[in-house]
Amino acid sequence: MPTAPPPTAHRLLDQCIDQLATARNHPWQPVPDAVQAAYTLTGTGSGESALATRIARDILPYGTGNTHPGFFGWVHGTGLASGILSEMAAATINANTGGRDHGAIYLERAVIDWAKGVFDFPPAASGLLVTGTSQATIIALAAARVRVFGPKVRAQGNGGVHLTAYAGAGVHNAARKALELLGLGSDNLRLIPDAAHGIDLSLLTHAIAADRAAGATPFAIIGTAGSVDLGRFDDLGALADLAAAQSLWLHVDGAFGAWTRLADAPWRALTDGIGRADSLACDFHKWMYVPYDCGMVLIRDQAEHRAAFASRPAYLAAQTAGLGGGEPWFCDYGTDLSRGNRALKVWSAIETYGTARLGAAISDNCRMAALMGDLAGQAPMRLMAPVVSNLCVFTANAGLSPQAQSDLNTRIAQTLQLQGVAVFSTTNINGITCLRAAITNHRTRAHDVTAAMAAVRALAL
Ligand SMILES: *Cc1c(COP(=O)(O)O)cnc(C)c1O
Description:
The chain is an alpha/beta fold. 42% of the residues lie in helices and 13% in strands. It folds into three domains: 63 residues; 245 residues, Aspartate Aminotransferase, domain 2 (3-Layer(aba) Sandwich), CATH 3.40.640; 106 residues, Aspartate Aminotransferase, domain 1, CATH 3.90.1150.170.
């Protein structure tokens, strides 16, 4: 294997930079059969030069299209140019951030310290960069369970104690999965209907009392800062009051919405009180636009966090100096021992663009969603839920029967995706499959929104 990269590697770097610089010309497209066939491994080892050629020809053109300014589907982050540099450097260093004493460890600590400041968590809080909010939720709820039982729960299990948790009806599926993986059972996640501003607090209080009366042990409330379907926010300050009064752990799922902390008024106020949570899960790869994958968990009480995960077999015993030093080690704060260098791409994004510019992009995304909401309010379209932040859900022709609307909206989503015009996803509101835009896209401009909505309208008539 040659140690110096062949010149084709430099060409590939140029191609990557060019593609991102012209993201507007690169919407999603289906992967042709011949290209899919070319993915079959030959196993023959054809060298770096051939690799660069194959990546440029067969891989680069067939992404998710989420770098395109007309991409509004699901809640996908859109990537940053800083990521090309940081991923290149990360691959060069190939750091393992499970622990020890090296640069990436200090970088991750710096990122977590910065995040504690953004979210008003105390300096003594702990944090970990993870794959995403799904993993962050598991880690947070594992720490919440340790608060109930102490660390012995790790060896002995729950001993038949029936734990229950509470969330608004729009809570993300990640919470359910976390309870399943912790062996608590997703049936024990009580879904509380929403009132005007998020989860109904009086119904929540009643549900907790009813579970206690029935012999269960309520242990956690999961607040949502930005529901995935409609972009709704629970009143986090009120949930913090209730959790304190009831001695329950407050976890906040802020996968994307937590970052409204960096936005202007009125959006910033959506996350007032977030710093009072016991734990927070959020993603850098959604509304901070950082390349996949990177989420984060913050936990207020570092001792509870460590008590849920710290464990060091003899071969990992830390030294007091040298590479084997560097305590505390990140492997003691989560499930992964070997970990990549996620901090570099986050650090690079923040240092390249600055928090003010990232916050301005988030505010602008909310403005774009509001613009889309205005356009969706014009007949025959109809807005199906108020635009609170960056989510806009609407139907293309409210004059049709529910079934016909569902068919039409589904067809429009597919057609616009295949045409490379815009990517909407769909969701179900009151039995109608609606078009859904989640704008976490710093490349989207007002003309992208108006063009996409004109395309919807043309297909709706
Ligand atoms: C995306 C999302 C999740 C899951 O996060 P991943 O990073 O995809 O694991 C959880 N909650 C909400 C509100 C989300 O939008």
